[in-house]
């Protein structure tokens, strides 16, 4: 009986294997047929919707209506759509469309440029020029817009920041630094109370956008005491506050244990936090280390950058 039972089980397993093989072959056949049908369907709709589409009929749309439709795209998408047809190109180059991608107060921003007023033949050309960082407010700030989204970016100079005892030559020195985008940067001589604050009104930025605040810094060769205790970072808007800590440490490229790296002779950035521009409020940003009584020095501060959070580390601000 035991042997008979084994034979029955083996025979049953063979049947299951055969059925499984048939099922796999049937599934592959159905998949091939469906793929063929999908290919034919896509080819058909491509011919109907694209190849037979009469772009000349787009001229029947009211100009303002079409400009309003294009305003819901991004500058990057708008440039791509201009390659579809000559009609789309003429509409995509119009001032009515590019007006929507410029800051609402661009007239006031242009008037604050250090250089002479811009001479632009179109709003598209003005947008392109504003994508290049330009000094404003007597050279104490740098303004630009991000070319893919049109979002506003600012770089505040160290002079625009509130640095504890920053005007005392005993603690801080102000001098030109190689690679800085401003006439001078602040270098920490020695101090026990390290506190750097910056602020900006959210109304100066693009609305409904997640922004990040980044302190632009460099570590001098003589730096000391900066990594004894972690520094506190924070961004505060109204009742909302994001905060954390960061260890300021100068590292060699071969130092694999360093979690926050300042590479030699290069500017780096410290992420102070993020905020969302949903109302017209003051944004307060801060880096401080005030718990330790030890002396620290060698931190060089170039400025504070405010840019949309989705953007990678900006290199346009560096020469």
TrEMBL record:
InterPro entries: F-box-like_dom_sf, F-box_dom, PP2-like. PROSITE patterns: FBOX. Pfam families: F-box-like (PF12937), PP2 (PF14299). The keyword Transport does not apply. The keyword Isomerase does not apply. Gene3D superfamilies: 1.20.1280.50. The chain crosses the membrane at residues 16-37. Residues 55-101 form the F-box domain. Keywords: Membrane, Transmembrane, Transmembrane helix. This is F-box domain-containing protein. It comes from Vigna angularis var. angularis. The lineage of its organism: Eukaryota, Viridiplantae, Streptophyta, Embryophyta, Tracheophyta. The gene is Vigan.05G156700.
């Amino acid at each position: 009986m035991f042997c008979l039972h084994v034979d029955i089980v083996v025979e049953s397993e063979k049947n299951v294997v055969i059925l499984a093989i048939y099922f796999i072959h049937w599934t592959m056949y159905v998949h091939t047929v469906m793929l063929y049908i999908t290919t034919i369907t896509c080819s058909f709709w491509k011919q109907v919707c694209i190849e037979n589409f009469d772009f000349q009929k787009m001229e029947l749309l009211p100009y303002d209506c079409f400009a309003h439709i294009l305003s819901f795209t991004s500058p990057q998408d708008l440039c791509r759509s201009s390659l579809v047809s000559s009609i789309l190109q003429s509409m995509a180059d119009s001032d009515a469309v590019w007006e929507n991608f410029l800051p609402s107060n661009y007239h006031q921003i242009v008037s604050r440029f250090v250089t002479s007023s811009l001479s632009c033949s179109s709003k598209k050309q003005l947008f392109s020029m504003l994508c290049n960082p330009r000094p404003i407010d007597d050279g104490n700030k740098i303004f630009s817009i991000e070319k893919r989204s049109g979002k506003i970016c600012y770089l505040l100079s160290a002079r625009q920041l509130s640095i504890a005892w920053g005007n005392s030559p005993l603690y801080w020195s102000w001098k030109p630094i190689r690679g800085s985008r401003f006439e001078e940067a602040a270098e920490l001589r020695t101090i026990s109370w390290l506190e750097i604050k910056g602020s900006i009104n959210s109304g100066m930025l693009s609305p409904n956008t997640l922004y990040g605040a980044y302190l632009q810094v460099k570590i001098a060769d003589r730096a000391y005491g900066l990594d004894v205790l972690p520094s506190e970072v924070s961004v505060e808007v109204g009742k909302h506050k994001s905060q954390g800590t960061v260890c300021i440490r100068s590292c060699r490229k071969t130092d694999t244990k360093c979690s926050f790296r300042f590479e030699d002779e290069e500017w780096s950035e410290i992420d102070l936090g993020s905020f969302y521009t949903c109302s017209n409020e003051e944004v307060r940003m801060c880096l401080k280390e005030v718990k330790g009584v030890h002396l620290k020095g060698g931190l060089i501060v170039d400025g504070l950058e405010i840019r949309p959070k989705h953007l990678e580390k900006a290199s346009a601000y560096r020469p």
